[in-house]
Structure formats: structure tokens, C-alpha cells
Design brief:
Keywords: Bacterial flagellum biogenesis, Cell projection, Cilium, Flagellum. It comes from Proteinivorax tanatarense. This is Flagellar hook capping FlgD N-terminal domain-containing protein. This protein is an alpha+beta fold and 142 residues long. Helices cover 39% and strands 27% of the residues. It contains two helices and seven strands. The strands form two sheets. The protein has a five-stranded antiparallel sheet with strand order 6-5-4-3-7. A two-stranded antiparallel sheet has the order 1-2. The longest helix has 42 residues. It is rod-shaped, with a radius of gyration of 29 Å. The N terminus is likely disordered.
Amino acid sequence: MKISNDTGQMGPKNDFNAALGKDDFLKILVAQLKYQDPLDPQDDSEFISQMTQFSSLEQVMNISNKMDKMVEKVNSNGIAATNAFSLVGKSVEIKTGEGTVVGIVDKVVRNDNSFSVEVDNKLYDLDKVEAVMKLEKDEDDA
């Protein structure tokens, strides 16, 4: 079957989500068993081979699901943690209800699934940080 893909060209559909899943595989297997010729039943080795393929498919899908969860967790926690902890010692601009606070991040604190930065002994949610600035070196420090 030919369908139009995103480029407007005609060709076979190459969509990972359109691949047969384990439920489809089971339906095909049951249909094969249901409609097989009773005078010429399916060979045992062929049936075992199909069951092995189904088992492999299920294991691959489980691994894929676990990998997706792991990547999601790394992306949500790992990158956020790296970004948050890299703010220590940097000058930040934080929007608050009272206005804008500018100061140097003394430390970063993790609370459950979020991060806070401490500026001038007060904690602020990381998502309130509006800007990060490079610290200016004093001429005496050079």
C-alpha cells in the first residue's frame, strides 16, 4: 500500500508506531490456529517458533518501556540538577512578588522534584530565576 508521507512523496509507510504490537501478534496467532486445516495441522516446530517470537517481542517491548522511563527520568532530574548546581557562585536575577532580587547563589537545595537557590540566606524556587550573569572580576583580584 502506498501512502503520502510528510515530504509529499509516495512510498511505503515507515512509522514506528504503526508497527504490529504484541496484541496484534496474538490475534494473528489465534486466527492461524482457528482457521488451520484440521487435516493438515500446523507443524509443532513452527508453532514453537512463533511462540518464541512472541516472547521475544514482549521482552523487547518491556525493555523499550523501561528505557523510555529511564530517559524521561534522566531528562527531568539529571539535566535539571546539572543546570541547578551550575548556578552556585553565579550572579542571578530572581523575580519575586515584591520585585527583583539580584545576588550570588550560595547553594542549591533539592526539594522532592524541584530545586531552590539560596541567595543572601533566602531560598527561591529555581523557576523564579530570570537571568544568570557573569561575575565581574575586581581589578584588585586580577
